[in-house]
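ok so for the tutorial part 2 we go from a plain amino acid sequence to predicted structure tokens. step 1 is just haveing the sequence, like this:
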Amino acid sequence: MFIAHKKKRNIESEEEYLDQLPGMPTRFYYEELRTATENFNKKLGQGGFGSVFEGSLKDGSKIAVKCLEGLSHIKKSFLAEVQSIGSIHHVNLVRLRGFCTWKSQLFLVYDFMSNGSLDRWIYHGDREHVLAWERRKKIILDIAKGLAYLHEDCRQKIAHLDIKPQNILLDNDFNAKVSDFGLSKLMDRNQSQVMTTMRGTPGYLAPEWLSSVITEKVDVYSFGIVLLEILCGRKNFDRSQPEESWHLLRVFQKCCEQDTLLDIVDTNSEDMQINGTEVVEMMKMASWCLQTDYTRRPSMSSVVKVLEGGTKVESNLDYSFTDPRPQVNNSQEKGSTPLLPSVLSGPR
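step 2 — the prediction. this is what the tokens look like for a chain of 348 residues:
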């Protein structure tokens, strides 16, 4: 009885904390969301933080409702990060419309993205249709602009920490929007790096994660992996490939060394093959983003400038993407555990 009462009191204090936060988005009533989603009937997907359901509000606007289990266990710091995401707006970030607390559940309400996540459109065998090169270029630029905004234009720097195709959503016109900030980390503008526990998805994790000292450049690395997947039309780890080609990063390194990058341009798209020379130029951008030493990676605003034709990719690059020995500079801890290629490019 005492435990149940204490749990209820904790939930109430969490709710009071939410109400006191300045700049929080709209608070929805549970019944309002239950009606909007037809009793949470149409599931759009499920991730590590909960399930997502499609719904429609009374004004006719479509929404996606994410249900997070166990509100009483969610730290205030996480709620503060949700508050921060709710108060920022950018055309290439999925808008957080509001939230709802009910019993031990927290619901987050987002704009609905009719074309779903990017992974549905770029992986051979998974995709519904093959995206043309011009559309892929626009999606790549959209992602870069969204990340540049998070890193450089917000009041506090925001490192997303889980950039992958499943977290890039596409609207009706295939405009790409970065989503799912459940793992994001707020950084003060004067912070060059932060200590944090490893988080993210295997295959997209930058080498410096093993030192637990990270910067927003971990997002740049993840963007580089996503960029490769878009250009090659395959997953970064794919057992349907011959064994020597399971790891896309290893294949990419080999092709860089042998100057055979045209061989890995998406073979399931005639348009990508026709524009192969331009696609290979874009692969040089991926190489820059995938530098093992994070200080040699570009900022996301520099990536945007290159994509818009305002500057060039750095020419003096290290192509040892799968070297298991981590690069140690003065800002990293010496003696950190080596990151094996299987971790760098492992399955999801």
